[in-house]
Amino acid sequence: MLFDLDNLQKNYGHFQALKGITLQLDAEAVGLLGPNGAGKSTLIKVLLGLLPFSGGRAEVLGMKVPDQARQIRQVVGYMPESDCYLPYMTAIDYVSFNAELCGLPRAQAFRRAHEVLYFVGLEEARYRKLGGFSTGMKQRAKLAQAIVHGPKLLFLDEPTNGLDPQGRDEMLELIADVRARGVHVVLSTHLLPDVERICESVIMLNQGELIHAGTIADLQSGKDELLEVRTHLTDDRFREILIGADFEIEADDDVLKIRLPQGKSTRDVLSLARDEDIQIRHFMPERLTLETAFLRLLDEAKEGSLER
């Protein structure tokens, strides 16, 4: 089991950063999502044993937090969002030092540092000081120090933060390569397309509460099927016909989004168009994006908190 959490809580004084998180999840790559202040970074630090929690129970890869925090950190890599280096250190010294902190002997740490700096594309800059690196190079160096000891699990906190489109794409390719080598990945980011590209499961937090834990496929499956329909003429006639037949309609320019209630099918929509002599130019199911599903869950969570 990747994570096994039971009523996990973290308080900062009177402020509840984590409000009883309970989940069991086993996945190769997990997206950790939530708005600012949702508790994502706090959850990562608690699972790493860097922050004490206030209540509940937590296990990572079958190891208990905080009792086995040192063993956890030996098999887990962490790339924090903020800069975590000394600017006067060279890349090779920085990465090899982190390898030693994870328990590797000095000679092995130095050899591994060369290997991972080559992997992330910094082989020619490995003897340069980190203070002179660009944002993209710093992010690559941070990734290198997170994987230098060969972790089983990798926490990535906003790894594409500050990168241009090309740099972001290259970073995601590196992360995908790490995942392909059998490393579990937890990607904490506000860029939902990054999660869709890398992960198959998600953990969603909102104001310290868990609002979803499971596969992206489950999250994207809506209660009712949604169709996108475009007709020959952009008028309201077909919409009125559909509403009269108890279909729920959303309009987006010249596209009708038709929600199929229980008992209705795509054949019913096509039959209405045929009977009314309406020519359909575009007809296909709409895929519920991760962003749409995420915003919908946030709205439901907000409505639930207002009711309470």
Explain what this protein looks like in three dimensions:
This protein has helices at residues 40-47, 69-74, 91-101, 106-119, 135-147, 165-180, 192-198, 216-220, 237-244, 266-275, 290-307; strands spanning 3-12, 15-25, 29-33, 55-60, 63-65, 76-79, 153-157, 184-188, 201-206, 209-215, 225-231, 248-252, 255-260, 280-285. It has 308 residues and is an alpha/beta fold.
Largest beta sheet, briefly? 6 strands, mixed
**Low-confidence spans: pLDDT under 50, at least 5 residues?**
none
How many strands? Answer: 14
Structural class estimated from helices and strands: alpha/beta
Helical element count?
Answer: 11
Give the overall silhouette. elongated
The whole-number mean of residue pLDDT values reads 89
Please compute the radius of gyration using only Cα atoms.
Answer: 24 Å
Measure the end-to-end span. Answer: 33 Å
**Beta-strand fraction estimate:** 25-35%
Strands ordered across the widest β-sheet: 6-7-8-3-9-10
What is the share of helical residues? Answer: 25-40%
